[in-house]
Write a structure and sequence with these properties.
alpha+beta, D-amino Acid Aminotransferase, Chain A, domain 2, 2 domains, nine-stranded mixed β-sheet, 7 helices
Length: about 290
């Protein structure tokens, strides 16, 4: 039985009730984080809290609890749900209002909600343990503030369904300049020759925690050439490897794009080496 947290109380998830007048329900007026937890230990929690601060600032909502208080809440959710391999979902909205109107309430009372869900053990970097993804490509049609980790994810959901309808698991998105932005639920790395490339951050991309960890690990533990810059569609389609990065996937290889194989449809050697670095260092900060 999943135990969730809502505004000071812990209860079975099935018994938790949120008002239909919550602005998170009415407008998607809130932000969230998903923190992976393995054997009771949360991964990169400080990075997630830093991004939470940035997202709250992006929607002009003050953080209702301190980092220490949020950490205590999340730790309790982990403990009450067995402290195994879990994803911890944390959502903060602008709270309940008496009347639905677009303007922010003058004195909001934010809603804090958290719950846990099971996740698979991470790959150890071997091809046998890789979660491989097929991807399609589409023009990025989401809103212009993707750097905020907003709960308003309809644009991402519609793009994800474009992948599902093509029997794929992800969609690689390109802006009007035909430059890679990200995927529906992940950041993206591509291997071009001997160089690892990922798009530079801006309003079109979420500042992924796993992306940040990956860049730090590659800088600290390899001599690989890594570039953060615009990535063209041609570079993506000719890449020898493509990786997805997200908190619950770490690094995952893309084995086909638009039905054409990447690296002969197998996880690549660079992906394997990078994921092995996560296996060794996921709980450390370089």
């Amino acid at each position: 039985m999943t135990i969730a947290y809502l505004n000071g109380d812990y209860a079975p998830l099935a018994d938790v009730r949120i008002s239909p007048m919550d602005r998170g329900f009415l407008f998607g007026d809130g932000v969230y984080e998903v923190i992976p937890c393995y054997d009771g230990s949360m991964v990169a929690l400080q990075y997630h809290l830093e991004r939470l601060h940035q997202s709250l600032e992006g929607i002009a909502l003050s953080q209702p609890e301190s980092d220490a208080q949020l950490t205590s809440i999340l730790s309790e959710v982990v403990a009450r749900n067995g402290a195994g391999n879990l994803g911890i979902y944390l959502q903060i909205t602008r709270g309940v209002v008496a009347k639905r109107e677009h303007a922010f309430p003058e004195h909001p009372l934010p809603t804090i909600f958290a719950y846990a869900f099971d996740i698979s053990p991470p790959s150890d970097g071997s091809p046998e343990t890789a979660s491989c993804f097929r991807a399609v490509t589409r023009r990025d049609q989401r809103w212009g503030r993707c750097h905020i980790k907003s709960t308003a994810l309809l644009g991402n959901v519609l793009h994800m369904m474009e992948a599902v309808e093509e029997d794929a698991e992800e969609v690689l998105l390109f802006n009007d300049q035909d430059e890679l932005t990200e995927a529906a639920a992940c950041n993206v790395f591509v291997v071009c020759g001997d160089t690892i490339v990922t798009p530079e951050l801006d309003h079109q991309k979420l500042p992924g925690v796993t992306r940040r960890q990956c860049l730090e690990l590659l800088e600290t533990h390899t001599d690989w050439t890594v570039e953060i810059r615009p990535v063209s569609r041609d570079e993506v389609l000719s890449a020898s490897e493509i990786w997805l990065s997200s908190s619950t996937k770490e690094l995952a290889p893309v084995v086909s794009v638009d039905g054409k194989p990447v690296n002969e449809g197998r996880p690549g050697a660079r992906w394997s080496a990078a994921q092995k670095l996560f296996q060794q260092h996921r709980f450390s900060r370089p």
